[in-house]
Write a structure and sequence with these properties.
Blueprint: E1 8-19, E2 25-41, H1 44-49, E3 58-63, E4 75-78, E5 81-91, E6 96-102
Antiparallel strand pairs: 1-2, 1-4, 2-3, 3-6, 4-5, 5-6
């Protein structure tokens, strides 16, 4: 692992349901994991491979940690913005790689 590669701070959150004051439920986000990561903007050709518009904000993310519960239902908070995970994360023995796109 090269330490200088992971220079951006991200937070991975998972959705939870919380009971409200009238007995119903509301959706909230719970922090699953906060980590340093490598966050690289995807270029036009890579976006085209995934069938995305050229004006979409898409990043390739790599973190040095194995996460079992990370999936497409999770979101990533990076730079004060919320991002959705695109596709299935690739999990190896040491890293997790996935793509994110800006949530509306």
């Amino acid at each position: 692992m090269r330490a200088t590669k992971y220079t951006k701070r991200i937070t991975i959150q998972t959705p939870i349901q919380v009971e409200n004051e009238v007995g119903g439920f509301r959706n909230e986000w719970s922090t699953l994991y906060a980590s340093w990561a490598s966050v690289i903007p995807m270029n036009g050709y890579r976006k085209l491979q995934y069938g995305m518009n050229s004006n979409e904000e898409v990043y390739e993310v790599e973190i040095y940690r194995r996460l079992v519960n990370i999936g497409v239902n999770c979101r990533v908070v990076y730079g004060g913005n919320n991002y959705s995970i695109v596709g299935t994360p690739v999990i190896t023995d040491e890293t997790v790689k996935f793509e994110i796109t800006r949530s509306l």
